[in-house]
Specification:
The protein is of the alpha/beta class and 306 residues long. It has two domains: 164 residues, Medium-chain alcohol dehydrogenases, catalytic domain (Quinone Oxidoreductase, Chain A, domain 1, Alpha-Beta Complex), CATH 3.90.180; 126 residues, NAD(P)-binding Rossmann-like Domain (Rossmann fold), CATH 3.40.50. The chain is built from ten helices and 15 strands. The structure holds zinc ion. The site of zinc ion (ZN) has 6 residues, from helix 3.
C-alpha cells in the first residue's frame, strides 16, 4: 500500500510499504480522508515530536477486525484518532475510534478531530455563554473554536488574522468582527470594542509570541487566557502585568470527541466549511505541506485522500 513516510524536515516521501495487520483489540481501516493538522505542519518544518501525531485526523471504513474487538464490525464507517494515517490503510486500537453516525458525510467526519480539540478547550476552559471572547488566529484551530463558541451560545467573538481570506471565513462563520492585527493593534482595538474593559477570555490559536502577548493584554482584570497554539520558540512574558491583572492562563492539548459530535448533531454546526481542498496522497508534500506552510496561502484545511 501507499504511505507518506517522514524522512526529515521538509522531506516526506510517498512509498510502497507493507499493509499493517490488526492485533488484539485493533481494527484495520481503509482510509477515506486524513486532514492535514497544524501539528503535522509543525513537524514538517521543525522535526518530529517525541510521540509523533503525524497524520492523525483520519476517517474511513473498517476492513478487518483483530481478535477481541467488541464494538465494531467490517464495514463500519469510523473516525480514527491514531497516528500514521497518511496511508491507504491504518491499524488503530478499538478504543481510539468512533462510529460515524448515519447521514454524516465523510468530509464532516474528517474534521471531527480538530473540532474535538476545540470542544475540550472550551469546556475545560469553562467559557460561559455570556462571555466576550477574543480568538487570536483564524486558521483551522481558531475557526473550530469559533464554531464551538457559537455552539454554546457565545454571542461576541472577536478574531484576528493576518490573512484576508481567513478573516472573511471567520466573519462568514459568525465572528462579530475579524481584524488584521498589523492594521489595528489588538489590545487597543479590543479596548475600544469592549468600552475599555477587555474580553473575558482570549484564546491563542497560532503559537507565536505576538498573539500570546495580544491575548495577555486584551483580557480584562481576572480574565483568562487559553493557549492552544503550538509553540516552537520560548516566549518572554511581562509577568508584572500578568500578576497585577490577576490573569489565569491555561494550556490545552486534549480532545473531547463526544462533545464535538453532540454539537454537530444538536447545534447544527458545520465544521466541514473550513475545508478548502482535497488532494491525492501522492501530492501531500507539493500540494499540502508546502502550500500550507507558504505565505498568503488561500487554503485553510486540506484533506488528503489515498
Ligand atoms: Zn489535529
Amino acid at each position: 500500500m501507499k504511505k507518506a513516510v517522514y524522512y526529515g524536515i521538509r522531506h516526506v516521501r510517498v512509498e510502497e510499504v507493507e499493509e499493517p495487520k490488526p492485533g488484539p483489540k485493533e481494527v484495520k481501516i481503509r482510509v477515506k480522508y486524513c486532514g492535514i493538522c497544524g501539528s503535522d505542519l509543525h513537524e514538517y518544518l521543525h522535526g518530529l515530536f517525541p510521540q509523533s501525531p503525524f497524520g492523525h485526523e483520519a476517517c474511513g471504513e473498517i476492513v478487518e477486525v483483530g481478535p477481541e474487538v467488541k464494538g465494531y464490525q467490517v464495514g463500519n464507517p469510523v473516525i480514527a484518532f491514531a497516528n500514521g494515517a497518511y496511508a491507504e490503510y491504518l491499524v488503530c486500537p478499538e478504543e481510539r475510534i468512533l462510529k460515524i453516525p448515519p447521514n454524516m458525510s465523510w468530509e464532516r467526519a474528517a474534521v471531527v478531530e480538530p473540532l474535538a480539540g476545540a470542544a475540550y478547550a472550551i469546556e475545560h476552559g469553562a467559557i460561559q455563554p455570556g462571555d466576550t471572547v477574543l480568538i487570536a488566529g483564524a486558521g483551522p484551530v481558531g475557526l473550530m473554536l469559533l464554531l464551538g463558541l457559537k455552539a454554546i451560545g457565545v454571542k461576541t467573538v472577536y478574531m484576528t488574522d493576518l490573512l484576508k481570506n481567513r478573516r472573511k471565513k471567520a466573519e462568514e462563520l459568525g465572528a462579530t468582527l475579524a481584524f488584521n492585527p498589523l492594521e489595528n493593534k489588538t489590545p487597543a482595538k479590543i479596548k475600544e470594542l469592549t468600552s475599555g474593559r477587555g474580553v473575558d477570555a482570549a484564546i491563542e490559536a497560532v503559537g507565536i509570541e505576538a498573539t500570546l502577548k495580544d491575548c495577555l493584554t486584551s483580557v480584562r482584570h481576572r480574565g483568562k487566557v487559553i493557549v492552544q497554539g503550538i509553540f516552537t520558540d520560548r516566549v518572554p512574558i511581562h509577568m508584572l502585568g500578568f500578576v497585577t491583572r490577576e490573569t489565569t492562563m491555561m494550556g490545552m492539548n486534549s480532545a473531547n470527541p463526544p462533545l464535538a459530535m453532540e454539537w454537530i448533531e444538536s447545534r447544527g454546526i458545520k465544521p466541514e466549511s473550513i475545508i478548502t481542498r482535497i488532494i491525492p496522497l501522492e501530492q501531500i508534500s507539493t500540494e499540502g505541506f508546502e502550500v500550507l506552510t507558504g505565505k498568503n496561502q488561500e487554503d485553510i484545511k486540506i484533506l488528503v485522500t489515498p
